[in-house]
Amino acid sequence: MNMLQRIAFLACVSLFFSTQAYSQYVKIRQNNVYASLGTTIDFSTSGLYYSTTGLAYERKVYYTRNGLLNVRGGGGLVFLLAENHGYYYFTDFVYIYGENWHHLELCLGGSGIYNMHKKNKDLNNDVFKSSLDYFEWYPSLYIGYRFHLPNGPYVFRSGIGWPEQISVSFGVSF
Predict the structure, then answer these.
(1) Does the pTM of the predicted model rise above 0.85?
(2) How many structural domains comprise the chain?
(3) In CATH, what number is assigned to the domain containing residue 26?
């Protein structure tokens, strides 16, 4: 094999392996918006149902061959039966791992809950506090399943975490 043939062979092998390492996450769209519905049972208060409903925006930040790192933020309402219990807000780092359209989703961040129930109780008892006294901070954690075609416009999520608790989400990518 002469020098020109060796260079051509190495170029073909290099091209083959570079296309094999091409990440599917390159094709995933940059932005996601989705609505979530969640619920839980609070066993400490005789099993009443808490429900959450929220909206989130997510942005692709970084991708590797095997995963994707997004940043998301959102907020929503917390209900105790039909009564508005408060508002929640969250900001997370989202790591998505998987192939084709089935993904494992792991989230870690911070969340805050504005407790309207406690505020209304204090107002009924003529207790006046700062609005910040009703704001509680918690870590935000989530683990779940995500169905998302690499170049598809729709997102489906389901999982368990805080503040959405046991949740299902539907959304779009653009």
Answers:
(1) no
(2) 1
(3) 2.40.160.20
